[in-house]
Structures are given as C-alpha cells and as structure tokens.
Amino acid sequence: MNTVKLFSVLLSILFLSACNNNKDNKTATNNEGYSKVETYEYPTDSIRINKWVSEGNFKAMYKHSWNIWKHLTDSLKGGKLRYQTWASPTQIVNKLNNPSGNENTETLFEKPHQFTHHNPDFVTDDLSIVVTVGYNKASEKFAIDNKIFYLSSLQKMQTGPYSKIPDFPSDAINIKPVYKIITEDKVYDGMYTMSAWNGPKSYDDGYPQSKWKSCIHVNINEKKNNPSGRLDYACDDINNNNTFYLDDFIHFKISKKQAASYNQQINNADVKAKEGDIALLVAMHVTTKEIKRWTWQTYWWSPTPLNPRNPSSNAIASSKNGIALEGAAPHYAMAVAYSMITPSQPYINGKNEGNPLIAFNPYLEAHFGKFGSDSYVMNNGSKINTNLGVDSNCMSCHMVAAIDTKKGSSFNGPSYQGDKYTSYKDPELENRLMLDFAWSIQGNLQTSK
Questions:
Q1: Pick from 11, 102, 297, 353: CA 20 to 30 A from residue 127's CA?
Q2: Rounded CA gap, 159 and 137, in Å?
Q3: Which of 244, 229, 133 is nearest to 182 (CA)?
Q4: Phi and psi for 14 in degrees, rounded to 5?
Q5: Which residues are within 8 A (CB) of 282 and not within 5 positions of it... i.e. 6 or more apart?
Q6: In which order are the strands placed within the sheet that holds 162-164?
Q7: What is the chain's percent helix, strand, coil content, to nearest 5?
Q8: Dihedral angle of Cα 200, 204, 208, 214, to the nearest 10 degrees
Q9: Cβ atoms 401, 441 nearer than 8 A
Q10: Are 187 and 180 in contact (CB under 8 A)?
Q11: Please, is 297 exposed, middle or buried when counting C-beta atoms within 10 Å of its C-beta (0-12, 13-18, 19+)?
C-alpha cells in the first residue's frame, strides 16, 4: 500500500496519510522543498488508478495526466519550472562518482537515444531537436541508492531468465523534454519557422517532419500571445493566424555550456548555437511510477490546443478545464497510455486481444518506420497492424526496456515495438534484465563502473 505524503502550506510540515484516504484537490507532496498548493495528490494510490484503468474511466485518467502536467510546469521560487530543477542521468552519475564533491553541473542537451536505438544510421531531418532527461528527487535517490547506471550493479541483478531491477518508488517521475533551439541562422526578419503537427499519416518509412508540410511562425521580438491559431501548409505564408510568440511556448535562454552541448550534438558547421539563444519546449514524455507499469502521458505544443490533432482529442483537451495551468502550459496537447491495449491485460498470461491504445509523441516517434518486431492487436478475429511510430504506445515500447548485461557494449536489447500487449514473461524478455520500463538506464550506462 502506498503512502500519500502531504505538505501543509500553512504549517509547512510533513503529514503521512494512509493511501486509501485519497481525496481530490489536496496539497501534494513537494519533493523539491517548496511549499506550494497543488490541485491533486501525488502519488495517487495505485488501487485508485488501476480502478480507472479496469473500468475504462478515461476522463479520470485525462484529468490526472493534466494535473501531472501542472505539477511539472508550476513555477517555483527562483523562476524555474518544477521539471527544470530535476537532475539528468549525467548529473546523477556525477554525484555517484563524486559523492563528497560539490561540482556545479547543469542539464545539457543531447540527441534522443531512441533515434539511434531504432536505427543506428538514422539522421533526423530537423537539426534543431535536442532533448534532456530528468529524474525527480525520488527517482534520483533510487538511482543513486541502487547504482542503476553502473553496469557492475546491473550484472549482479541479472540472476535468472526473467530478472528485473528493483521497482522505482511510487513517487518517482521520469521525463524527456524535447526542445528546438532558435539559432541565428534560423531567424528571418524576426521570425522563426518550425514544423507543427497536423495529425498522423502512415508510411512504411515513417512520417518525419519533412513530410508534415505544416508550419507555424514564431515572432521572437513582440510580447504577445496567440492562444489558438492555424497551420501554414505552405510554410512561407506568414499571417496573423499562423504567427505565434515566445510566450506561447515554455521557453528559456540557453547557457554557454548548453550552447556548446547543442553544437557538439548537432555537429554542423552551418548551425551554431550561442549563449542567450532560445530553447522552445515542443514536446515531453512523462512517466510516473504510481502503478506497477507506470502511467504514461506525452505532451506536445499545439497551435490549436482546444482542438488538437490525433493522437490527442477534444475530450483530452477539455479535461484540462479547471486545472489552472500556468503561463504557456495550456498551449500543449496530450496523449495518455495507462495500459497497452483496452481492455487492460494482466502482468502475465494476458492476451493481445482488444482495441489498440495509441499514444505517441509526434516529435519523437512519428518518424519511425516499421519496427523490427511484428506489432499488432487482434480484434474480433481481425489483425490490426501497429508496426509504425504513429501506431505506438508508450507503455508497450517501454515494457521491453531490457538488456543482457553479459553481451558487451551492445547489451542485446530488444527492438522497439508498436502498440501491443507484452507480458512480464514475454520471450523477448527472457535471459535479459528488465529495467523497470526505463530505457534511460541503457542509454546512460557506465560500462567502466
């Protein structure tokens, strides 16, 4: 049974409450040490969330995921948003390697590991996309206590055909923010043009941004807002409807070190970032360990946040009503996956039968062509193929986050997969160490430790 930790804003002291005493609209645990009223409890009891899943109560899941978004994007003392205060795996490794040190590090940019995991020769068509990975305080403590980024630690955990690392704690949150950096070469007459999602299309070789043929324009000089506009399908017809502003995005000015990390990752002589350039948050994967297989929600910037394109929906968008998102946070769309398919299947001995549950991020998975594994869902005797990025599900993909710690640098990890049911006893996971859904462990593994 999980314990719900509550901070009292008036007394600023910690109370413990039994997990079954959950009620809406209370003050949530604040691991960062700030007193701040929240509109939901975190972590919410797993029994309660699993009931939503079993009953197909998507309205409750949508509301919960928007509350998670509020939790991440609330501003804290000092001006940063909560998610911006969390440590990256690199920072956690630095703490592991220097437990008594006082090294002043910051979160740096990197290319998404999933691009090259899916295809080692993959080259993105948008050179401005970079990511960070963040672990909240609970995840960070777990990572340090269990030394999960050390290969030697994981080797000790792989003891049988279906080994797994210990479960992250119930209040763990892991995130992957996705940014576009506005470098000088991409600004013309004060305007920055970027691809914006127009909904999925199925191509065997994927649906990358070069195929979207839909853009918006960002005026980087004027202080205005455009709460809802239109796409520019010519990508060169700038008008009031398709022009947005920096304040329509979660954004910040990058540091000298962040600019250097961007330039190192992009490695293009014609694209150079410098200190003070703007990072626009265009997307974010978010997972919380409130249930055994984690809750999964993914967000991306939308020009029409009240009428978003698939894999979001109007029902998802309307569920943000009453949540009081701050600043530019309402400008983002969302998709959720609290199960792999519907109805939800058990941890083992389930069936890959039912309805697909599609939840992917346009900026991270839409470009994926056919996966290496055969993904599908059976529905009333018919096979529904789900073998593309636009047919994927966060939980399904992260379910196969696993490695064979005895296989050297490749670690023999499973291929990514689209939406399908996968059991904890799936043949793909046999003789591998399951990483509790965290691909970020494999992507940041220290093989010398």
A1: 297
A2: 29
A3: 244
A4: -90, 130
A5: 129, 178, 179, 180, 194, 249, 300, 301, 363
A6: 162-164, 432-434, 402-403
A7: 25, 20, 55
A8: -50
A9: yes
A10: no
A11: buried
Instruction: Say if residues 341 and 385 touch (Cβ distance below 8 Å).
Output: no
pLDDT in tens, the chain (449 residues): 443 333 333 323 333 333 333 333 333 344 444 334 444 678 999 999 999 999 999 999 999 999 999 999 999 988 999 999 999 999 999 999 988 766 667 899 998 765 554 444 444 445 568 999 999 999 999 999 999 999 999 999 999 999 999 999 999 999 999 999 999 999 999 999 999 999 999 999 999 998 999 999 999 999 999 999 999 999 999 999 999 999 999 999 999 999 999 999 888 878 899 999 999 999 999 999 999 999 999 999 999 999 999 999 999 999 999 999 999 999 999 999 999 999 999 999 999 999 999 999 999 999 998 987 789 999 999 999 999 999 999 999 999 999 999 876 567 788 899 999 999 999 999 999 999 999 999 989 998 88
Return the structure tokens found at 319: 């569920």
Round the CA-based radius of gyration of the chain to a whole number and report it. Answer: 21
- 359-369 as b/e: b if 16+ CB within 10 A: bbbbbbbbbbb
For residue 298, the one-letter residue type is T
Q: Are strands 173-182 and 278-288 parallel, antiparallel or unpaired?
A: antiparallel
Which residues, at least 6 apart from 240, have a Cβ–Cβ distance to it below 8 Å?
Answer: none
Both tokens of residue 136? 């909240």
**Are residues 297 and 68 in contact, defined by beta-carbon separation less than 8 angstroms?**
yes
Helix (H) or strand (E) holding 446: none
From 172, 86, 110, select the one nearest 444 (Cα to Cα).
110
C-beta neighbour count of 407 within 10 angstroms: 12
Residue with the two structure tokens 């079954």? 20
Residue bearing tokens 């999980």: 2
The identity of residue 268, as a single letter, is N
- Gap between the Cα atoms of 57 and 253, Å rounded: 40
**Residue 301 three-state SS:** strand
- Enter the tokens of residue 409: 């640098």
